[in-house]
Amino acid sequence: MKTTITSLFSLLFASAFLVGCEDCGSATITEPTVADTEWLVYSSGDTAVFKDENADTVWYVRTGIYAQSTPGDGYNVSDECIEKLNTQIANIMEDTREAADQRQPYLGTLILSKPDSLLVRIGVGTQATWSIDTAAATQEKEVNGKTYTGVYVLEGEGTKDTDVKNVYFNKSDGFLYVEFNNGRKLELIEVR
């Protein structure tokens, strides 16, 4: 994890150097703290093992982590000079099954680090995304016979069969439970 964080900060420093120019000066980047990056949950080489609705084992692996600088509050990408940049980092986990018709949607975590706040979002494929209020009350939930604490319970709003119905997520283990309107589901067994 330390190598990943160091690499990300190096990339961000390089992007700030490229954004700055003689006329504009250098940009100030809001870098995420180590505590902020814990919301991304999954590290390089991690595998999340789930049980699906048929009690089959489903393996999700981290296929990418993406970092980029975004214009800070009050700035736009079309501005000639951007003096403040926020940092956005996204982490993607994907189902490893070969048959496309069996694969569940990817799972994503995202943070946006601003000078005075941190935005945390999670998503299930292209079907649904949620903002997580990190100060909100959490619940205790049992998934696959294991009790998890600090759980955010999120409900989908879509009505199509393939839309997400419910998601349980926590900061230490990530996606614990994902249920779709058509009865498909993922229940966490472990993160390796």
From TrEMBL:
Keyword Signal: yes
Protein name (Swiss-Prot/TrEMBL): Lipocalin-like domain-containing protein
Keywords tagged on the record: Signal
Signal sequence extent: 1-21
Upper lineage: Bacteria, Pseudomonadati, Bacteroidota, Cytophagia, Cytophagales
Source organism of this protein record: Pontibacter actiniarum
